């Protein structure tokens, strides 16, 4: 069990550029979640997948954000036309089950938009 | 308005002291998870509590889920410098709205001085 992995760990970009993050969940987990965490706050839910289906999206996920999980394994989160307000830690988590399932988090991708 | 109120936000104590962190909500949760997070890393799961009134112990840490599944506490006995970190509580399925969507508290930054 290698745990949840995320790449890259850090990303610095200029305002207006597009960025893409990748998350590889624990292999047997069918659910995958994305959260965003800003300094001094707890993580905030963005979206989640059950297998390849995206089941819920937060209001925080504007039109500039898109997430995919094409084969029900890894997931990508893309932010288009980045803004300074997008600077945050983007966390991925995975779990097993259709209802209650403990979520295990990856190390996160820290994004800084200049 | 924060759905899950965590207190205190900051705690600075001497090695050997006891402490309690609280998470309170007006919503009922299906389960509640406690995480510990180091700077620049993702949250690491400490425990999941599911049943109202449940008490779980993990070495010097004691976790309790309220009878009504609306609140929880984390008690640390004889704190050590290695306990220093950010402690987060997270409730699942607030008010029966969505399984898997974790709602986090703001976090408690604990510093244990030698």
What is the compact description of this entry?
The complex is a heterodimer of chains A (114) and B (114). By secondary structure, chain A is mainly β.
For the biggest sheet of chain B, the summary is:
6 strands, mixed
Overall average pLDDT of chain A:
92
Count of alpha and pi helical runs of chain B:
0
Content of β-strand of chain A: over 45%
Helix content of chain A: under 10%
* Tally of alpha and pi helices of chain A: 0
Gross morphology of chain B is globular
- Which structural category fits the helices and strands of chain A? mainly beta
Which structural class do you get from the secondary structure elements of chain B?
Answer: mainly beta
Would you mind describing this structure in some detail?
The complex is a heterodimer of chains A (about 110) and B (about 110). In chain A, strands 2, 4, 5, 6, 9, 10 and 11 form a seven-stranded mixed β-sheet that branches. Chain A is an all-beta fold. The model of chain A has no long low-confidence stretch (mean pLDDT about 90). In chain A, about 0% of the residues lie in helices and about 50% in strands. Chain A has strands at about 5, 10-15, 20-25, 30-35, 45-50, 55, 65-70, 75-80, 90-95, 105, 110-114. Chain B is mainly β and about 110 residues long. In chain B, about 0% of the residues lie in helices and about 50% in strands. Chain B contains no helices and eleven strands. Chain B has strands at about 5, 10-15, 20-25, 30-35, 45-50, 55-60, 60-65, 70-75, 85-90, 100-105, 110-114. In chain B, strands 2, 4, 5, 9, 10 and 11 form a six-stranded mixed β-sheet that branches. A five-stranded antiparallel β-sheet of chain B has the order 1-3-8-7-6, with no helix packed on it. Chain B starts with a strand and ends with a strand. The model of chain B has no long low-confidence stretch (mean pLDDT about 90). Classes of the chains: A mainly beta (about 110), B mainly beta (about 110). At the A-B interface, strand 4, strand 5, strand 9 and strand 10 of A face strand 4, strand 5, strand 9 and strand 10 of B.
